[in-house]
Design a protein that fits this description.
heterodimer, A: Helix Hairpins, 3 helices, B: about 625 residues, mainly alpha, two-stranded antiparallel ribbon, 2 strands, globular
């Protein structure tokens, strides 16, 4: 029988993979995908909690997150495209102009 | 009627001052007319007031309005009219009118004549305020106003450096004395709960021990104000320097009126000094010495010291300035010895003849194109007859030659000394000898002989606008002494302490006084009649230099101040530079900047470093919150 803990473990694993991706990869697109992974790990945890506690609030929350994430992704991708057009690169380590 | 007259006497000059200051300053003709008109009006009103009150001289008239009332402090703006203030009013407005008119000639070519007359009117107002003040608070306000207007007038030619320095010196030295005066007022108020002269003196009549142990201290604190305004030792240093002002100002302020304010204050608050003296425990060794003794001693020291210095000065105005100091010392000494009437009498006659002498000096300076060194004058007797004869009358009056006014008043002063203290009497007699000596030295050198410089050679008599006041004051200098015959001034002080001289004493003192004139005149005659240079220059050697350098008192102050005040200033500067600015201000700035620089190292610009730090921070936060 699959318990609540199992879902949480999967969710935590997904979150960690996403975090690791954010911290180690160089390409902005990959970084972005890792971020989405972290978001969805949180979504998974929320849905599981909603299911096991018979409370629909969690699922409603997830709908909102997915909607907002879709909007955010479209803005983010547009920024990445614009950046690439200007700089011809998507490597995060090349984007360090904001320090003094 | 009295109230109306006294208020109009007081308010006329300030009206003129305000009008000049606000509207007519640029118009010197109109300004001078306003100012002279105002003081002339005050003089006429004073005469009228004197006439109205002539039948009842013993009753002091006071009128007052409440000015402010805060808790226990009730301050009134009052008028006190008794024979004492009446006399002072006559002196201030009468002599003042003559000097205002004289100024018209003396200051004729000055571009800022309007400002000058505005200041003169302000001064007249302040001085009349002192005279009429019925309480300590009002007295103090006008006291300070006199200080301010004196400052403005000494520094009238502020573009000249010595004048600018002199006016500051005068103001600061006066403030020094006034500080004690203010503390004295507060002390008296805190014990008696009143500021009104009449109320306080009434309280003392009921209970002479009211002030307890601080009786003498209170008197001496009030006397501090006198030290400053009447330029008594050791605060006398400002008066000779104040000669940097225009000469009519020296005549008005630094001879006839302002410096007399101190003596007037002493007489006005005499009830305080006449209380049985008691000292606080720390001053127990002073028991038996009353505050009046100290007053008399200071007066005597001032008079002999100033007379000694005057014998070795070459500037005509400085000689007169030291002479003023010396005579003020006489007055203070007389009051200190219980002869307040003699002091007031001498104050009155001195105002006449010293104003005359200063105006005479002004006339000489005007004629000789601002030459003030007596050794560069000479031969003016024939060229300026009116000035010479009036100056001679002033000199004779100052020396106390009969029948001029100074004879009567000086004799009263000497008599007061003779009856109370032999040592002070001897000092006063020596001062009288010296007075005659230095005054005739001045007359012989400046007016006699032949002209010793081109400007003196080209001198001619001053215009009548200047000689008329001279003649007016000369007449007063001759007849002014007759006022005092029959003890008129003795009526001012109906609460005792008036000496009624014995006839024998009076004769002895009179002969000593005349002897002093002879002893002073002949050395001056033999040494300076027709002299081309000062024979005493070599004769006195080191002492002469010492006196010429004004007994090095200014240098002593300089030395003392550079040791104390400047050491303090240096300490304050060090604290400011190193602790306030260095440690505190710069320290705060450094801390902020250093922290900023250190934190900047964390800003790598690498997004992933930020993400890592953010993640770690979050982990730590969660760890703390959850566990």
């Amino acid at each position: 029988m699959i318990q609540f803990e199992h879902y949480l473990i999967v969710s935590a694993l997904l979150f960690c993979i996403g975090l690791l991706g954010v911290l180690t990869r160089k390409n902005l697109l990959v970084l972005y995908m890792s971020l989405e992974l972290m978001l969805n790990a949180a979504n998974l945890a929320l849905v599981a909690a909603s299911r096991f506690h018979d409370n629909l609030n969690g699922q409603i929350m997830v709908f909102f997150i997915i909607t907002v994430a879709a909007a955010e992704v479209s803005v983010g991708l547009a920024l990445i495209v614009a950046l690439f057009r200007r700089r011809q690169t998507t490597n995060v380590q090349d984007l360090s102009e904001l320090k003094l | 009627m009295n109230a109306f007259l006294s208020w109009s006497i007081l308010l006329a000059p300030i009206t003129a001052a305000v009008l000049i200051g606000l509207f007519t300053k640029q118009n010197s003709k109109l300004s001078s007319k306003l100012s002279i008109g105002a003081i002339g009006f005050s003089f006429l009103m004073t005469l009228l007031l004197a006439a109205v009150n002539s039948g009842t001289p013993e009753i002091p008239v006071t009128s007052s309005v409440t000015w402010l009332e805060v808790g226990g402090l009730k301050v009134e703006l009052g008028m006190i009219i008794d024979p004492l203030s009446m006399m002072m009013l006559l002196v201030v407005t009468g002599v003042g009118t003559a000097i205002h008119i004289f100024s018209l000639g003396y200051m004729k070519d000055d571009p800022s004549l309007g400002r000058y007359f505005g200041f003169l009117s302000l001064f007249t107002f302040s001085m009349l305020g002192i005279v009429l003040a019925s309480n300590f608070f009002q007295m103090f306000i006008f006291w300070e106003l006199v200080g301010v207007s004196s400052y403005l007038l000494i520094g009238f030619w502020f573009e000249r450096k010595p004048a600018a320095a002199a006016c500051q010196k005068a103001f600061i030295v006066n403030r020094l004395g006034d500080f004690g005066f203010l503390i004295g007022i507060i002390l008296i108020w805190s014990i008696t709960g009143s500021l009104d002269f009449g109320e306080i003196s009434g309280a003392f009549t009921e209970n002479p021990a009211l002030l307890g142990a601080s009786t003498a201290i209170a008197g001496l604190l009030i006397f501090c104000g006198v030290l400053g305004k009447s330029a008594q030792f050791p605060l006398h240093v400002w008066l000779p320097d104040a000669m940097e002002g225009p000469t009519p100002v020296s005549a008005l302020i630094h001879a006839a009126t302002m410096v007399a304010a101190g003596v007037y204050l002493l007489c006005r608050t005499l009830f305080l000094f006449e209380l049985p003296t008691s000292w606080p425990e720390d001053f127990a060794w002073l028991n038996g010495v009353s505050s009046l003794h100290i007053v008399a001693l200071i007066g005597a020291i001032t008079s002999i010291m100033a007379a000694l210095i005057a014998t070795r000065q070459d500037d005509i105005k400085r000689i007169l300035a030291y002479s003023t100091l010396s005579q003020l010392g006489y007055m203070v000494m007389a009051v200190g010895l219980g002869g307040a009437a003699a002091g007031m009498f001498h104050l009155t006659t001195h105002a006449f003849f010293k104003a005359l002498l200063f105006l005479g000096a002004g006339s000489v300076i005007y004629a000789a194109h601002h030459e003030q060194d007596i050794w560069k004058l000479g031969g003016l007797r024939k060229k300026m007859p009116v000035t010479f004869w009036t100056f001679l009358i002033g000199t004779l009056a100052l020396c106390g030659a009969p029948p001029f006014s100074g004879f009567y008043s000086k004799e009263e002063v000497l008599l007061a000394a003779y009856q109370s203290n032999v040592v002070l009497f001897v000092l006063a007699a020596i001062t009288a000898v010296l007075t005659t000596f230095y005054m005739f030295r001045l007359v012989f050198v400046a007016f006699g002989g032949s002209a010793k410089s081109e400007s003196a050679d080209h001198a001619h008599e001053s215009p009548s606008v200047m000689t008329t006041p001279l003649v007016f004051l000369a007449v007063l200098s001759v007849v002014g002494g007759w006022l005092g015959i029959g003890g008129y001034f003795g009526h001012f002080f109906d609460h005792g302490a008036v000496h009624h001289g014995h006839h024998e004493n009076q004769t002895v003192v009179m002969f000593i006084g005349i002897g002093a004139i002879i002893f002073g005149f002949f050395p001056a005659f033999f040494m300076y009649h027709g002299a081309e240079s000062d024979p005493l220059k070599k004769g006195l050697g080191g002492i002469g230099e010492f006196l010429k350098n004004r007994m090095l008192i200014d240098e002593a102050y300089q030395w003392f101040i550079s040791r104390t005040h400047e050491a303090l200033a240096r300490l304050a500067d060090w604290i400011d530079r190193w602790i306030l600015a260095g440690f505190l201000v710069k320290g705060i700035q450094f801390t902020g900047e250093f922290t900023g620089r250190a934190l900047r190292l964390a800003q790598t610009g690498n997004t992933q470093t930020y993400a890592l730090l953010f993640g770690l921070g979050l982990a730590v936060a969660l760890f703390v919150i959850l566990l």
